[in-house]
Amino acid sequence: MQLMWKVVRPEDLQLGDHVYRYGLYGLYSHHGIYVGDGYVIHFTRTQSKKTIFPSLFKTSHEQEISSPCLKCGYQESINRGVVKTCLNCFQQDSQKLRSLHRYEYGWPLLRFKFARRGTCTTLLNTKLPLQVVDKANELHADNAFGDYSLVNNNCEHFATFCWTNNRVSEQAAFFSECLQKIKEAKEWTAELLQKNRTHSIQPSSNVVFHRV
Ligand SMILES: [Zn+2]
Question: H-type helices in 16-147, by residue range?
Fold first, then answer.
């Protein structure tokens, strides 16, 4: 298991590597493309944190303002969409430096089913690393990846798009599946409660009937 999601040292990174680091206590992974010289191009939220995660972030927009990175100038509260940052900025989460991992392409379906979402895909990477870097640079130059959406257009969609021309996010698909299951469970519970209520009413009306 450790080999599957092994940590990659910054000095071992190669041009075009699709990398990720964990955030929010490991609940999600943030993805980007390594473009050389210690820099990563990644897709960040285009709205405030409060808009994307209303239940997790109660702070106002003003309280999110951060100071610019001394190395790359990245400022989380100002630079949004497709950004190019130093590795440190990419690895930062809640003021902690997270480890880097390399995303895997072309996983066999059976192995993929047991893999942690957001770490690999069954899709094949059909491009050369330099083509991937070019695509990431192009999207960064025009900041052209649209509005951020946790489920439909996130950082993993961006990185897989650079490699395959397909916007794929296994972790978003997993989240959607979970949300759907929760919705189904709620509907099923509500239905069950309704049935129980109906059953509990019927005997009591019978009792009344006998008394009459
Ligand atoms: Zn930086």
Answer: 49-52, 87-91, 109-113, 129-142
